Amino acid sequence: MFLEKTKAIHLGGETTMILGTLPKDFNPKFEAVGSFVQYNGEIILLHRQDHKSQGGTWGIPSGKKDDGENPIDTACRETAEETGVIISRDEMRFFSTVYVRFADYDFVYHMYHTKLKNKPKIKINEHEHKDAKWVSPKNALALPLIEDLADCIRLFFDM
User: Fold this and answer.
1) Is the pTM of this model over 0.85?
2) How many separate helices (H) and strands (E) can be counted in the chain?
3) Where in the chain are the domains?
4) Which phi and psi (to 5°) does residue 100 adopt?
5) What percent of the chain has pLDDT over 70?
């Protein structure tokens, strides 16, 4: 598929590795899910509250998978919790799973996407985010993004 080899990314002085195949020594601390919610060539980006991890950066609707929860259900739940947009399992499509290695821990990241027919009103969870906006993938890359999101955008949109 896309990441045949290990890819090292240097951000903020740290090295993050995004792997397309499960390495033998991989020990994930958790699984997370992110959703590219699209309308008319743009995606929803959420501006993280300053007190949150990686505060002040922009990200797609995402979050940790609950124990026993299916990743597609996590994608639908997190999108609803963070944007107020309800997306059914039938509307959400799987894109890819990658394996992420930070200096301190590993985690599994599942990516999903959906294309909306109508532009919804976004209702952010103000505890987690301070703003939301629709942006083109190209314009998203000019924003301060949550770690590794730029690579995920390039991957998903084949940029």
Assistant:
1) yes
2) 3, 9
3) 7-156
4) -110, 130
5) 90
Closest C-alpha to 106, from 28, 33, 53: 28
Pairing of strands 62-64, 28-39: antiparallel
Instruction: Identify the three-state secondary structure at position 100.
Output: strand
Which among 53, 52, 60 is positioned nearest to 79, based on CA atoms?
Answer: 60
Q: List Cα–Cα distances, 51 to 23, 47, 88, 118, in angstroms.
A: 33, 12, 31, 33
pLDDT of residue 94: 97
Residue in this structure with the two tokens 């009103």, named with its chain if needed: 121
Q: What is the largest CA-CA distance in the chain?
A: 44
Instruction: Classify domain 7-156 by CATH number.
Output: 3.90.79.10
* Tokens 């939301």 sit on residue: 132
What is the rounded radius of gyration, in angstroms, for the C-alpha atoms of the chain?
15
